[in-house]
Amino acid sequence: MPKMKTKSGAKKRFSITATGKIRSAQAGKRHGMIKRTNKQIRNLRGTAPISKADSKTVRKFLPYG
User: Which of 1, 30, 39, 62 has the fewest Cβ atoms within 10 angstroms?
Assistant: First the structure.
């Protein structure tokens, strides 16, 4: 059987941790910063693990993760 292809959009957006959880950048920092507090913007830095329900969907796009 041939190799499965990884969705290239998913490989740019998600990464898998050593324990197998899926990380992604935090939502809410693309635009509209003027209405968010500085604390909110600061806390949205970096990455966060995604929910279990979402990770089931993302795993289909990252078969060899």
Answer: 1
Q: Which domains does the chain show, CATH number per domain? A: 8-61 (4.10.410.60)
CA atoms of 56 and 52, how far apart (whole Å) = 7
- Structure tokens given for 32: 């509209």
At residue 17, the pLDDT reads 94
Instruction: Pick out the chain residues at pLDDT < 70.
Output: none
Nearest to 9 by CA among 62, 64, 63, 45: 62
- Tell me the C-alpha distance between 63 and 11, whole Å: 10
pTM: 0.81
Lookup: tokens for 37: 């507090």
| Cα separation, 52 vs 57, whole angstroms | 9
